[in-house]
Every structure is written in C-alpha cells, then in structure tokens.
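Q: Mind making up any chain with structure tokens?
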Amino acid sequence: MRNFRSSPEVNAGSMADIAFLLLIFFLVSTTIPKDKGIARSLPQPCPPSQPCNIDINERNILLIAANETGELFVNKELMELKDLQEVIVNFIDNNGDRSCNYCKGDKDVKASDNPNIAAISIDVKATTPYRYFISVQDEITKSYQVLRTRYAKNVFNKNLEQLTEEELKKVKEAYPFRISEASIQ
C-alpha cells in the first residue's frame, strides 16, 4: 500500500486583492512631474515666392556667448549674468521706436537702431553647461517681459494680463522676440 502524502497548499485567494491594493496605493501616492522647458515657437516656413534671407546690420545684433566654464561674453566683453537683463533691455529699446509718445532721450551708440530690428544671437560651445544656457534664455525672456510690460503701461495704461488679444498683438509687434541660437563646436 502506498502512502500518499498531501503537500500543504497556500491559499492564494487573497493575493489578487493584495496586488490590487498595492497598485492602487502606488497610483494614488505617486506624483507625475510636469515637463518643463523653454516656451518657444519656431518661425513660420518661408513662402516660396518671397526672399527669406534678411540682412541685419551688425549694430542691430547683440551677441551673447558662453563658454564651458560658464563665463558670459556680451559683444566680446566679459559680463556677469546678473547684469545681462539691463544690457538686453537697453540694447533692444534704445528709444529706437520714434513713433511712440513716451520715448525720451538720445540713442545709445551701442544699442540697436529700432526694437523691431533688434536681434539677439546666442553662441554656446557644445561643452557649455546646460544651466548656463537656460539662465541666459531666462534673462532674455525677462528682458522682453520688462519691455512689453513698460510698453503696455505707457501706451494702453494696462498690465499685460489686462490687455485684449488685439492690444497684446500690438505689444508683441512693438517688441518682437528675435533670437538666433548657434552652437560652436
């Protein structure tokens, strides 16, 4: 006579319940970070019948360069990041838009001829730390924010948030965001 020994069984009925509870716990307790980046839109493609290469006078280009150690050069002069916003605002504005009623003072010879044709060129080496590039981008964005806010206050007597779509379009036309990015190998 053979002796059959029964092996002990594990009750797996509640395993599915435990797995489901763990899944619910991790779904509820996990936060999904929002991606951050630089809000930029690419220019529209050039229509086939129009010339797309625009010649810009060197005077109307502000050259910003950063090297691998994070040193910042503006028009080949060493500069601190904290001073960049003021330089950009002065370069772009320069009381160049003579059609506005609030323009005062004389033009600066180191600044652009007009805000509509002022351009900023960023040249970075491939080995430049990313945080320096982002810091420069932030300062450029803040500079345009200052200029556009000032224009909205002086022309429309409103904050940027209070402007209508048409007024906001005019503000952006007065201070168009013109930036060129290049990577130096």
